[in-house]
């Protein structure tokens, strides 16, 4: 039996479709350039160890390509990786950084001249101050542009080793926060009507994180009454240099008012003169000074049975420069029940710069929390009043017969 002979056209077609199947399995089977070293000795390569640890046994993070490069480079520094394209790009970035450093030196000389004019008591003091503020802002921008494209800086930031005293790391942290977490916070504030129920306007510029006993709470999440019985810990990350004083307020805006059939607000915590800087962000509310910082101590959030869930907003307020609040005098004037946040902000010239929020509702641990906090009303259940339907008044018989078209007919006797 003779073997069928395949024509050259069919052979080409089979080869073509075979290459398409191969390219489907491997999107790029032939690569002209490699960005990671190629290991030819596959027998001596431990894939499990190189994918998670380096030669020294340190756990690696990042993509698979980065883990492979770090595991095979040994003690070689990151900026000395033997890749031609990488080193050429570093030369371009080095030249750009030198240009930015030259502009920084020029801007610093200009700032020194303006400061000298201010010291001479020139007549246009206000104009010089405004000009000096703009020049310092431009100087900070140049500092960021000098290092923002450096791969070593980006690597340290991704590894969590950035120094928040440097402008470039503050810029990268602010950019990362605004790309996701700030958007989620603004969505929760809008959904739960924190604005305008508590504040007329809020533009967050600091990152506020909340944790109860080590458990991180996303914005707007429900927290059990037993968990929120003790004061939480805040992480307030500011992105501008220097140390400033802040006021922290925790307000419940859903306190039922049975007499007026409405809702009031209650302050669960209030503290002032809290110093914050880019490098000191942790604020344990239980460790604040009772004499110089805490105005109203922590009151566990609670919701009575039958009431809807309560929204508790944590508002971070920036105090004016060089004007700490008198805690003793403020403690005598501020009341926990019926606390008005807007009036407090206006009276002390505060500015809202950050926020967080969580919710609480009645659960099995609420009566015990209220008893331990000496709050009355643990055995009270709130119920909605039953509204009786308004029945229409019965129409007279004659008018009813006229509407039905039975005016000329005799009425039915019973």
Q: Mind explaining what this structure looks like?
A:
By secondary structure, the protein is of the alpha+beta class. The protein is built from 13 helices and ten strands. The chain has a six-stranded mixed beta sheet, covered by helices on one side. 38% of the residues lie in helices and 17% in strands.
Major sheet details: 6 strands, mixed
CA(first)-CA(last) distance: 110 Å
The number of helices is: 13
Spatial sequence of strands, sheet with the most strands:
3-10-9-5-6-8
Question: Number of DSSP strands?
Answer: 10
The SS-based structural class is alpha+beta
Mean pLDDT: 83
Share in helix: 25-40%
Determine Rg (CA atoms, Å). 34 Å
Low-confidence stretches: 1-51
């Amino acid at each position: 039996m003779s073997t069928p002979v395949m024509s050259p056209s069919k052979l080409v077609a089979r080869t073509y479709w075979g290459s398409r199947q191969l390219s489907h399995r491997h999107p790029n089977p032939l690569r002209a350039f490699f960005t990671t070293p190629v290991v030819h000795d596959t027998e001596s390569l431990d894939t499990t160890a190189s994918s998670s640890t380096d030669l020294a046994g340190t756990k690696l993070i990042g993509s698979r390509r980065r883990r492979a490069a770090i595991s095979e480079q040994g003690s070689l520094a990151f900026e000395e990786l033997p890749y031609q394209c990488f080193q050429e790009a570093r030369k371009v970035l080095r030249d750009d950084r030198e240009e930015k450093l030259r502009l920084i030196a020029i801007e610093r000389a200009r700032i020194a001249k303006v400061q000298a004019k201010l010291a001479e008591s020139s007549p246009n003091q206000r104009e010089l101050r405004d000009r000096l503020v703009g020049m310092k802002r431009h100087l900070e921008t140049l500092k960021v542009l000098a290092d923002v494209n450096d791969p070593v800086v980006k690597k340290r930031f991704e590894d969590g080793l950035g120094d928040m005293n440097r402008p470039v790391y503050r810029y990268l942290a602010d950019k990362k926060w605004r790309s996701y977490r700030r958007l989620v916070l603004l969505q929760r504030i809008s959904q739960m009507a924190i604005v305008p129920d508590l504040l007329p306007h809020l533009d967050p510029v600091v990152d506020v994180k909340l944790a109860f006993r080590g458990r991180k709470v996303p914005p707007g999440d429900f927290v059990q009454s037993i968990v929120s019985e003790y004061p939480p810990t805040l992480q307030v990350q500011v992105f501008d240099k220097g140390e400033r004083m802040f006021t922290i307020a925790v307000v419940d805006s859903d306190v039922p008012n049975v007499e007026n059939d409405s809702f009031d607000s209650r302050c669960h915590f209030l503290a002032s003169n809290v110093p914050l800087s880019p490098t000191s962000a942790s604020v344990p509310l239980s460790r604040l000074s009772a004499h110089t910082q805490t105005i109203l101590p922590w009151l566990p959030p609670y919701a009575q049975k039958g009431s809807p869930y309560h929204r508790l907003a944590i508002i971070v307020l920036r105090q004016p420069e060089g004007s700490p609040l008198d805690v003793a005098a403020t403690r005598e004037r501020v009341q926990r029940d019926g606390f008005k946040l807007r009036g407090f902000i206006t009276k002390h010239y505060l500015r809202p710069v950050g926020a967080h929020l969580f919710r609480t509702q009645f659960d099995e641990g609420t009566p015990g929390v209220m008893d331990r906090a000496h709050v009355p009303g643990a055995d009270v259940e709130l119920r909605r009043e039953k509204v009786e339907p308004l029945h229409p008044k019965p129409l007279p018989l004659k008018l009813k017969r006229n509407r039905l078209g039975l005016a000329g007919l005799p009425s039915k006797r019973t």
